Amino acid sequence: MLIVGLTGGIGVGKSTVTKLLAARGAVTVDVDALGRAVIAPGGGAVDAVVERFGSSVRGDDGGIDRAALAGIVFGDEENLAALNALSHPAINEMLDAAVDDAVAATEDSTRLIVVFDMAVLVESTLGQDTRHPYEVVVSVEAPLPIRLDRLEGRGMSREDATARIDSQVTDDERRAVAQFIVGNGGDLDALADAVDELWSQLVELNAQRG
């Protein structure tokens, strides 16, 4: 089994790469979705987050009001670190459970390739402080003008898009931990070709591990 950490900044097309890998046989786990789940109603981090940040962050549904929480932690390193310390252990438990489920569902786990789709790979220990940590990193990249155009196409202002990109780690920081780079500055056909090449490399790497 090979576990892959897939990362990339907003607007690079990371989710599209994840879908293409799934179509080729990977088991994919949306780590961002798990992050939302742990602060949703009944989520494993809800009570701890309310205790740390106050009742104003609890939503009417019993979960965490993400907008209210974002207003507290965005741009505040101390509060963001506190939130991560509360939520990331719960997310890591869910990652382990997802891998266990994938292993149980396959006849030959040695051929299994699991992809953790995670925006904050560089910035956190998500997917590392686990029983099943990721072993290689793939970083998805795209030129800045293309990223901005994509985000504007989603309804985000150029100013907000630039601020979101600037708040994240740089491509250089992601490359420093990545074994594979996928460029997504062209069309979908070009991206599919790049993912084909990546998939072949991941399959070969997994086979070499025995």
Concise description?
The protein is 51% helix and 12% strand. With 210 residues, it is α/β, with parallel strands linked by helices.
Strand order of the largest sheet: 2-3-1-4-5
Number of strands: 5
Q: Indicate the mean pLDDT.
A: 94
- Overall CATH class: Alpha Beta
Count of helical regions? 9
Topology, pairings included?
Blueprint: E1 2-8, H1 14-23, E2 27-30, H2 31-37, H3 46-53, H4 66-73, H5 77-104, E3 113-117, E4 136-141, H6 144-153, H7 158-167, H8 171-175, E5 180-183, H9 188-208
Parallel strand pairs: 1-3, 1-4, 2-3, 4-5
Descriptive notes:
The chain is 51% helix and 12% strand. It has 210 residues and is α/β, with parallel strands linked by helices. The chain has one domain: 3-Layer(aba) Sandwich (Rossmann fold), CATH 3.40.50. A five-stranded parallel beta sheet has the order 2-3-1-4-5, sandwiched between helices. The longest helix is centred in the middle third of the chain and has 28 residues, at 77-104.
